[in-house]
Amino acid sequence: MAEQAKVNADLERVVAEVNPRLYGSFVEHLGRCVYTGIYEPEHPSAGPDGFRQDVLDLVRELGVTTVRYPGGNFVSGYRWEDGVGPKERRPARLDLAWHSTETNQFGLDEFMEWTESAGIEPMMAVNLGTRGLEEALDLLEYTNVPGGTAVADQRVANGRAEPYGVGMWCLGNEMDGPWQLGHRDAEAYGELAGRVGAGMLQIDPGLELVVCGSSNSSMPTFGSWEKEVLRQTWDVISHISCHAYYEEKDGDTQSFLASAVDMDRFIGVVAGVIDEVAAEKAADGGGIVGTDGADASDGAAGEARARKVGISFDEWNVWYQRHWESEEKVTGATDPWPVAPRLLENSYSVADAVVVGSLLISLVRHADVVTSASLAQLVNAIAPIMTEPGGPAWRQTIFYPFAVAAGLARGEVVECSVAGPSIQTAEFGTVPAVDAVVTVDREAGRGLLMAVNRSLGDEVSLGLSSILGSGPGGGTHPDDDLLAGGAVNASHVRVSASPAGVGARTSDQSHSLEQSAFSAVTRVRMLCDDDIRAANTLEDPERVTLREVAASKIAGGELLLPPVSWAAIEFSL
Ligand code: AHR
Fold first, then answer.
1. Residue 77 in contact with ligand 1 by CB distance below 6 A
2. 313 Ramachandran zone, left/alpha/beta (phi>0; psi -120 to 50)
3. Is 101 helix (H, G, I), strand (E, B) or coil?
4. Per-position DSSP letters for 120-189, written without gaps between them
5. Which of 378-382, 465-469, 543-547 has the lowest mean pLDDT?
6. What would the mean pLDDT of 407-422 be, rounded to a whole number?
7. CA-closest candidate to residue 177, choices 207, 222, 136
8. Secondary structure, 3-state, 285-306
9. Beta-carbon contacts of residue 360 (< 8 Å; ≥ 6 apart)
10. Whose CA is closest to atom 4 on ligand 1?
11. I need a labelling partner for 41 at 20 to 30 A (CA). Which of 95, 203, 263, 553 fits?
């Protein structure tokens, strides 16, 4: 018999607005992400701009809102000037990060044009590895200044009259990592980032700058790095970055499935450091600036903890990094400096997609502090979209939870908790088997519950009846104890799902029954499979897709979650 779990949520208790930037992604000059990924002039679907239309269609379907560019490790050796102007004059260069040859046939103007075709907000990174203030200012002038000055006029001469108006900029990449070209310690990087950031704001005070946080939560300097760089850059930045990649290690699938526990803790620690530095800055006399930009230093104590710095979780995904390190890495032993080699082309399984769905739940739950995020990456290299040169493009398993979240987990995230069984993991100890998050998009009149069963072996029956909302005609919350995880009086909120279409109501509904959000479930989709290693491939590109769950399966307000499954339950408000 299935174990029982119950979601408790209140649609009226808003945690935060979900920033659309949470559904960003990442295009790096890495392997085949750019070349034969988004850009392949010889491809049958490519237009005169060289962009693969089949990939653009999938990118639009994925619902990506922002894309970070051009790296990643690549940016730390990149000369942006190489990638602009007539293509025949662009130099080829060594890319030290990925041991490849960069042809520079795709550069800044192509990327901007591509984002415009895709309807995506670009997010740029400046090189603080081999370069510094002057090059960053030139890049910003080229990108954002209308014209009439030397560098901006180069853009105009290159065929783009209007500035691009890029609003979000990363101050380097993973500068705490010894692998990073130009790696520095926290003091040196903080000083450089503060200086470059201040200069960039002199050109455009409206920019949102992202300072590098730790490359992952296992870095030896994690925590102290954040504190130091925040102290040095506090006055110029809007975000600090987090990066995290997860993989199954040594066959420990159960720990891998619980990877979001690490993401939750990671976000919690970084949010704590942001608060700490905010308090220090306030004590220094500057006052604490609230999230809305207003000075909250003389407000209530709670207000004083408000932060203006958010987290940009601008690299996250499943990545089989150990395989890359041991077998895949280009070392020069074979082709010394290949052009667009097949690198990091992970094939994602159902289990991987369930983990990605679980990480999305964590990100959305933390929308109060996570103001931007980028699934790393977009095409071919650790990506939801795969391509063959001259051939088709297809969706990996991880495409599905991302597309659902990007399309529907919008509006506001509301308070939500789950009571249910636990699982034992070697890496994280005892953790809840089921995790969930609820968002409501009041403008669109709909909501979404995303839930994951991280148990490797046990199915769980998920009770949906304690999700309360104002319902038709509005109303207040009938039982404040619900969200405290107390006993649930299921009699005053019940779900009725009719086989003919979820949404019918039972005849015994009282006024409080009107408050069940789940009287209006409109669609249920699930990611699960008897074979959790199943994946989509060139030969079988649709082996794994989302499964529609018949309304009859949730009659009585219970949804059966198989082991290793992720579900999206849509409802109307
Ligand atoms: O996304 C792949 C690489 O992972 C990025 O280039 C780097 O920033 C991170 O280590």
1. no
2. beta
3. strand
4. -EEEEEE--SS--HHHHHHHHHHHH--SSSHHHHHHHHTT--S-----EEEESS-TT-TTSTT---HHHH
5. 465-469
6. 97
7. 222
8. HHCCECCCCCECCCCCHHHHCC
9. 401, 402, 405, 409, 450
10. 72
11. 95
Q: Determine if ligand 1 sits within 6 Å of the CB of residue 109.
A: no
Query: Taking 90 as the threshold, does the pLDDT of residue 484 lie above it?
Result: no
* AA letter at 21: R
Per the structure block, which two tokens stand in for 311?
Answer: 């987290």
H or E element: which one contains 460?
A: strand 460-468
Q: Which of 403, 418, 405 is nearest to 370 (CA)?
A: 405
pTM of the predicted model, to two decimals? 0.90
Q: Output the six-digit token pair for 334.
A: 């074979």
Query: Ligand 1 pocket: which of 243, 313, 345 to mutate (most atoms <8 Å of CB)?
Result: 243
Tokens of 459: 């199915």
Between the CA of 495 and the centroid of ligand 1 the distance, in Å, is 45
Cα of 382 vs centre of ligand 1, distance in Å, is 10
pLDDT of residue 519: 59
- Measured in residues, the chain has a length of 573
CA angle 320-323-329, nearest 5°? 115
Q: Is the dihedral of CA 409, 415, 419, 421 positive or negative?
A: positive
* The pLDDT of residue 328: 66
Cα(423)–Cα(452) distance, rounded to whole angstroms?
13
User: Quick one: DSSP state of residue 283?
Assistant: I
CB distance 451 to 434 below 8 Å? yes
- Looking at ligand 1, which atom is closest to the CA of residue 26? 1
